[in-house]
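Quick illustration for those who missed Monday's session on complexes.
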Amino acid sequence: MNLVFASNNQHKIREIRSILGNSFTLLSLNDVSIHEDIPEDEPLLEGNALSKARYVHNATGMNVFADDTGLEIEALNGLPGVHSARFAGENKDSSANIKKVLLLLGKTENRKARFRTVIALILEKKEYLFEGIVNGSIISEKRGKEGFGYDPVFIPDGKNLTFAEMDLAEKNTISHRARAFEKLKEFLHQYSVSNNKETV
Ligand code: IMP
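Prediction with inosinic acid bound:
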């Protein structure tokens, strides 16, 4: 069975294909001829993931999943959260986003933060949500060149390296996104077993 991933980010699509394996066909937005920007203006990650999945489901009638991720900083009451991509402006500039976070935090002692990914799945017209979290802290200067977004200032709990100092394989063993997608994978596996389908 085909499953649409509501994204055109090739990097993400490759990453998710490698997590989910070959047991079903993963299609991108391009593959289903959706070329417009899907609105992401809900106040919560859950709402954004659901509204993206519903948009694609309504347009195609197909099974679909969508994800949304945010960095939630305790001392900033959960900001940048759902605003993570555009925290410092519409052009999604990661350096400017990090600068703004560090400025707002200043010398605040509480540096606790977490990345949270929410996936919304619509499968045979039913909706499901999956969550993946990695807890950590924000350091006061950027370190490392790998990854993207806020990776250079985020150190996951139990590690000494920022996400930007890890290679992708190491990041993927603990990341929020990997955890959420592992849950999706397990669900799809159980679903196909209990419905006696070879593939979902
Ligand atoms: P998206 O929902 O995956 O597009 O993520 C929204 C924003 O959160 C991105 O533009 C990044 O700023 C940030 N973000 C998401 N995942 C990561 C990550 O793994 N590392 C660093 N920043 C991330």
